[in-house]
Design a protein that fits this description.
single chain; globular; binds the ligand N[C@@H](CCOP(=O)(O)O)C(=O)O; threonine synthase activity; Thr_synthase-like
Length: 472
């Protein structure tokens, strides 16, 4: 399998290459040169597989040429054997139409673990194979950071610099990152928003001062391997609900557009996905883009769903490329102009291509709290606020008839409620306890450095603290 950049000019790479490269050298994001597709019979044949076996079956076409079937299967069993639920991503029924897909049974209690546990193992394998070191730079609004740190802490070939916006993640999220003490982990709290942190990370990948001395790697969803692993739980849930003989709709709490784009990939691969609902909080650039074609970023408003306080949504570029006809040169111009003005209009092809599968809805904090209360009172489920945004959107779209009553509608439960226990307590009057598997989070010492919000400060910190810089 070969991968191409959304901006058209970076070299095509194989799976090992894109996993280690993260962002393409032209600033674009990698996508498979063509979508692999399963027949109905092949999908039917996946029924009854365990999660690790299903993961290996679904991901096999993407890793061809870089991993043998045995290597992939071995990795999937190693990674998913360790989750806190035997089903890995269990489905819970809420009423006749609504389901929750629980994605928070990994070590750091958010959906990010499903992909990052695998990515950590892939880094280890490929770096060993190449006898190479990697300096990972990542940005987090809370969940990617802890999942990535847990996936690479203590390793000898990869070192991680994780940027989070100071004061804008929950206390549990911050502690899950800053209490991990390992020589290869650096936590940086920067002034500004997640978008600022993400912009610094992307800029480092195309900054010759950095790339001259460091081999950079990515753990954010700009890394294709992240999305690939997330495709699996769409298959797992749809198969349980009757695929390929029945279509399923999904509501996905969305920020960087990675999780919902994985649903798009599943549809491209032949899974009968009826609709993908992009659920945003009041930082609603994606809702505006999908409903009116206006992709213009304003300031970021802090909310009770901090992981979705994002305006510049990395993976939207992948959709614009694929749905808009895969014209890399035109997209490179469009993205350059967006980067300068922070505003753009979708082309007709992009808007129509997106509308074929995506619908969007936005939830403010009152609507989010109401959905959390509904889940608690009507289905006995304590859900986190991000999941609350998704459930609000699911209920709104069902009420508007966008999703017909006979179509199962699955809301992705993206984080364990205890990660956001203050917001949950305010909404439903119950304070969820942290599962014992996260250990004594509040008894451990934190370690992080605080940096000003400008790019040069971040870059200079990484350059002067990366072990690989010293070697160069
Ligand atoms: C709990 C939670 N829900 C939803 C999202 C949004 O997911 P995505 O960025 O893939 O759209 C995130 C962050 O990515 C998150 O941490
Ligand atoms: N919500 C995310 C933001 C980064 O998203 P990613 O999926 O691109 O890593 C977070 O929790 O950090």
């Amino acid at each position: 399998m070969q991968y191409v950049s959304t901006r058209g000019s970076a070299p095509a790479l194989d799976f090992e290459g894109v996993t280690l490269a993260g962002l393409a050298s032209d600033g674009g994001l990698y996508l498979p040169a063509e979508w692999p597709r399963f027949s109905e019979a092949e999908i039917r044949d996946m029924r009854g597989l365990s999660y690790p076996d299903l993961a290996a079956r679904v991901m096999a076409p993407f890793v061809a040429g870089s991993l043998t079937e045995e290597e992939l299967l071995g990795l999937c069993h190693k990674v998913y054997g360790d989750f806190g639920h035997a089903a890995v991503t269990p489905l819970v029924q809420m009423d006749a139409q609504h389901w929750l897909l629980e994605l928070f049974h990994g070590p750091t209690l958010a959906f990010k673990d499903v992909a990052l546990q695998l990515l950590g193992a892939l880094f280890e394998l490929f770096l060993e194979r190449r006898d190479q070191r990697l300096t990972i730079v990542g940005a987090t609004s809370g969940d990617t950071g802890s999942a990535a740190i847990h996936a690479v802490a203590g390793g000898t070939r990869a070192e991680i610099f994780m940027l989070h916006p100071k004061g804008r993640v929950s206390e549990v999220q911050r502690r899950q990152m800053t209490t991990v003490r390992a020589p290869n982990v650096h936590n940086l709290a920067i002034e500004g928003s997640f978008d600022d942190a993400q912009a610094h990370v992307k800029r480092m990948f195309t900054d010759p001062e950095v790339t001259r001395v460091l081999d950079l790697g990515a753990v954010n969803s700009i890394n294709w391997a992240r999305l690939m692993a997330q495709v699996v739980y769409y298959f797992a849930s749809a198969l349980q609900l009757g695929a390929p003989d029945r279509s399923v709709a999904y509501s996905v709490p969305t920020g960087n557009f990675g999780d919902v784009f994985a649903g798009y990939v599943a549809a491209k691969m032949g899974l009968p996905v009826e609709r993908l609902i992009v659920a945003t909080n009041v930082n609603d650039i994606l809702h505006r883009a999908l409903s009116s074609g206006d992709y213009s970023a304003g300031g970021v408003t802090p909310t009770i769903t901090p992981s979705m306080d994002i305006q510049v949504s990395s993976n939207f570029e992948r959709l614009l490329f694929d749905a808009g006809g895969r014209d890399g040169a035109a997209l490179a111009d469009q993205m350059r102009s967006f980067e300068a003005s922070k505003a753009m209009q979708l082309t007709n092809a992009q808007a129509e291509g997106a509308a074929a599968l995506f619908t969007s809805a936005r939830a403010d904090q009152t609507e989010t709290a109401r959905a959390m209360q509904w889940a608690y009172r009507n289905a006995g489920q304590v859900i986190d606020p991000h999941t609350g945004v998704g459930l609000h959107a699911a209920q709104a779209m069902a009420a508007e008839g966008v999703v017909a009553p006979q179509v199962p509608l699955v809301t992705l439960a993206t984080a364990h409620p205890a990660k956001f226990n203050d917001a949950v307590e305010r909404a439903i009057g119950v304070r969820p306890a942290l599962p014992s598997r996260v250990g004594d989070l509040f008894g451990r010492e934190e370690s992080y450095v605080e940096l000003a919000g400008d790019y040069a400060t971040t870059r200079d910190y990484v350059l002067s603290h990366a072990a690989a810089s010293g070697e160069a």
